[in-house]
Structure formats: C-alpha cells, structure tokens
Design goal:
Radius of gyration: 49 Å
Low-confidence stretches: 439-445
CATH architecture of the largest domain: 2-Layer Sandwich
Bound molecules: adenosine-5'-triphosphate, magnesium ion
Shape: rod-shaped
Largest sheet: 5 strands, mixed
CATH topology of the largest domain: Heat Shock Protein 90
Strand order of the largest sheet: 6-8-9-11-10
Structural class: alpha+beta
Order of helices and strands: HEHEEEHHHEHEEHEEHHEEH
Number of strands: 11
Length: 445
C-alpha cells in the first residue's frame, strides 16, 4: 500500500497510460497488418492487369517490382500443360486464392485472357506476411515513444499539482506555536479550501481556548492577590510580636514564602496582561527609553549596593520609543532583576542605550554565569528556569520580557559573553525608534 498521494497518482496514471498504450498498440497493429495485406492484394491485381497484355515474361520476378517482394508471373497457356503444379492450377477458378506450391503457401491471382490463355500472378504468403508485419510494426513506433514521454509529463504534472499542499504544510510547520492567525486561502487550489477552512476553524477554537485559559490564570492570580497580601500583612505583624527564637525562624521562612507567592502572582498577572492584549504600537505613547531605564535602575540600586554589585550605565543616548510605560518598566525590571540575582557579589552590570540603524538598543551585560547553550533555546518558555535553576524565581520573567518586546514590535537576543577572564550574559533588546529628541530627553534625564 503506497502512502504517498503523489506515488499513488503517478502509479495509477502510469498504469492507465501503459494499459491504454498496449491495447491501442495491439488494435493498431492488427488493423495495419490487415491493411498491408489488402494493399498487397491490390498490387497483385494491378500487376495482373499489366500481365493481361503479356508485357511480362513468365517464371521470373516481375519487372518494375522490387526484388524482395518476390512476385511471379506464371503462364499456364490455353490448355493444361507443363509441370504438374501448373496443371493443378489450371483446375482453379479465376480470382484471388491461397494454394500450396512446392511445399509453401502462395497467394495467387488467377486470370483468363480473352484469347483463352490463362496466367497467375503469385507471391509467397511468407513474404507477404513479413512485409505486412514490418509495416504494421512501424505504426507502433510513435505509440511506444509516446508512453515514456507521457509518464514523464504525468510525473511533472503530479508533482506540480501537489506543490501547494507541500507549501501549506511548510507554512504550518514554520509557524510559531502561538501564531493563531488564519491560513490564507488566496492562491491555493480549491481542493485545499476545505482543509484550510477546517484548519482555520481549529485555529479559532484553539485561540478561544487559549484566551479562556489566559483569562482563568489572570483571574485566579488576581483573586489570590488580595488574600496573599492580607496573609503577608499578618506575617509582617508577627514580626513585631515577641516570639521565641524558633518561632522567629519559622515566621521568617513564612514571610519569604509569602514574598515568593506574591512575586509569582505578579509575574502571572503581568504575563496574562501582555499576552491577552498585544497593544497597537501606533496608539501607544512616546516614552524616553533612557529615562524609563534610569527609573528602574534607581529602584534597584539599593539592592545592587547591598550585594556590592556595580550597576551603572556605560553609554546612554536619548532615544524615544513607543510603548506603555508600565510595560516597558516591567521588561527592564525583569532583565535587571535577573542580572542582579545571578551576578555574584562584587560583580558588575553595564547598561547601554544607543542607536543602531532605525532601532533603539538597550543592552545589559552582567558578570554572572551566563546561560548554558542548550538552555538558551527554551529560555523564553514560561516556567523554564534552565537545567540548573538557582535561587527563587517563577521562571516567568523572560516570557514576560519576550511578550513585551514583541508587543513593542522589537526583538530580543541573549548571548553568552565569552572570554578568558570573564563570563556573563549580554541581553540586547532592539525597539523601533519613534523619533529623535536628543536635547530635550537628555535634559530631562
Ligand atoms: N542574566 C542572567 N544570567 C544567567 N542566567 C540567567 C540570566 N537571566 C536569566 N537567566 C536564567 O534564565 C532563567 C529564566 O529566567 P526568568 O527571568 O524567565 O525566570 P526567573 O528569573 O527564574 O523567575 P522570575 O523572573 O519570574 O522571578 C533563570 O532561572 C536563569 O536560570
Ligand atoms: Mg527573572
């Protein structure tokens, strides 16, 4: 059983071509053979008309007839005479017939002249059949040459006709998992329309399902935020109560757990928010990228100082981008939070904001361990924290960053910094440049 449609079509069509060719060839061969025999009979009749006037000499191949046609004139005279064979012929009626002569069948046309003398024009049947076969065989040549040509054309047509299907599959394969835009129907053959229609229907249903789940996660996170905040407050209050040493340790662990849960909920909410509403870039306000980053850095400086990390700018150019301020801050905060958490004490984090072509670049380099190459591929997946996760974290930070960057029509690239004397991660975010406002922005910063 052949599974490929192309193989099946090709084999089926080839079988039809060969079968048709063979049947047609056989019929044509038989028809041509019969025609050739009739043609030879008419030659005999014409020769007999000429011999009527006695223009040929008996017993030799007839003049004007090709040697290998082997046509003979047999003069029988007016009365039976000569060899027994000739006398036997005399007993036959005028006309076309086959007789045995010297042990071989002969096609023969017997005629009587007005003066009563009789003659026969004769040709061995074997010679006639050979000629007829040869002529009939020649009619087969075009058909047998046509069959391989038709097979080639069939293969090309089949491959060409199935190409849109291969293209459709390639299109689907190349899609990102979260790309639910409908497949275009334009330019595809009508046979594929039901498939495209069904796939698009499925994409819509998947989209609805994904939306529902996102909303569920967002709602759940939102609903949980209030009780968790209340619990955190209670835990906070416990800190001011005079507790035995052992209980203090437990309260500290409780507070830490609360903090982690709050962080997870906030990250979930952020992710759900940016996944659900990829805002229109044109409608988003102008933001000075450098000011937005400086704001986040200012918030994180105490944390950096705490850990003895040199967090600072290496290069700041004032550039404007379009985006939601909260969205942009969330992205920068998540990137810097990672760098801060993963860079060892006394390390450094360098931030650069500059322009490259039509993009504003935000680059963050740290002196942490970097990300193992095999993990880089999956690092933007939600909840993925690498093969050897360190410390606390939800694994949602980079997913949020990715969503935000995509929402701003930008790109993000992560690469490990390699060198004999250092390691670290370099994060490069490219955002479309909105406008140049150098003086104003640097003045504001
Ligand atoms: N600057 C970095 N240096 C080294 N590893 C990093 C860096 N940034 C991210 N990673 C790795 O990528 C993983 C995923 O990062 P992500 O921000 O998505 O999640 P997280 O930081 O673990 O959790 P969350 O951001 O929600 O608190 C991290 O757990 C860490 O292993
Ligand atoms: Mg993070």
């Amino acid at each position: 059983m052949i599974r490929s449609l192309r193989g099946r079509l090709f084999l089926g069509l080839t079988a039809i071509i060969i079968l048709t060719g063979a049947t047609g060839g056989l019929l044509v061969y038989r028809w041509a053979f019969r025609e050739a025999a009739e043609l030879q009979d008419s030659v005999l009749i014409q020769l007999a008309s000429l011999a009527q006037n006695g223009s040929f000499s008996s017993g030799r191949p007839l003049l004007g007839v090709e040697e290998d046609t082997d046509v003979w004139l047999i003069e029988l005279g007016a009365t039976p005479r000569g060899p027994a064979d000739d006398r036997q012929l005399f007993g036959l009626k005028d006309g076309l017939q086959v007789v045995m002569r010297k042990g071989q069948p002969i096609r023969l046309l017997l005629r009587t002249r007005p003066d009563g003398s009789r003659f026969a024009v004769a040709q061995p049947t074997a010679v006639r059949d050979d000629t007829a076969r040869e002529m009939a065989f020649r009619t087969l040549l075009p058909i047998s040459a046509l069959i391989p040509c038709l097979m080639l054309v069939t293969a090309i047509v089949v491959a060409h006709s199935l190409r849109p299907m291969v293209r459709l599959a390639g299109n689907l394969d190349a899609r990102r998992a979260d790309d639910l835009t409908p497949l275009p129907q334009a330019g595809t053959p009508s046979e594929l329309h039901p498939f495209i229609h069904s796939i698009n229907g499925l994409l819509v249903r998947v989209g609805l399902l994904v939306d529902q789940q996102r909303r569920f996660v967002a709602d759940a996170a939102h609903e949980l935020r209030t009780p968790i905040t209340a619990l955190s407050l209670q835990a906070e209050n416990l800190g001011s109560v005079d507790l035995p040493e052992e209980a203090r340790g437990r309260v500290a662990a409780l507070k830490q757990g609360m903090q982690r849960t709050k962080h997870l909920l906030e990250q979930l909410l952020a992710l759900a928010r940016y996944e659900a509403a990829p805002a229109e870039r044109g409608e988003m306000p102008l933001i000075a990228l450098d000011s937005a980053v400086k704001q986040v850095v200012a918030d994180l400086l105490p944390q950096a100082l705490d850990r003895g990390i040199d967090l600072g700018f290496q290069l700041v150019e004032p550039h404007m981008v379009r985006g939601e301020p909260v969205m942009l801050a969330t992205m920068v905060r998540n990137l810097l939070d990672n760098a801060l958490r993963l860079t060892p004490r006394a390390g450094r984090i360098d931030i650069g904001i500059y322009r490259q072509d039509e993009a504003a670049i935000l680059q963050i380099e740290d002196t942490g361990p970097g990300i193992a190459s095999p993990d880089l591929e999956r690092i933007f997946e939600p909840f993925f924290r690498g093969s050897s996760p360190e410390g606390d974290g939800s694994g949602l930070g980079l997913s949020i960053v990715k969503r935000v960057v995509e929402g701003l029509a930008g790109e993000i690239a992560l690469e490990n910094i390699t060198g004999s004397d250092r390691s670290g991660l370099r994060v490069t975010v490219r955002l479309p440049l909105a406008a140049d406002r150098p003086n104003e922005v640097s003045g504001a910063a």
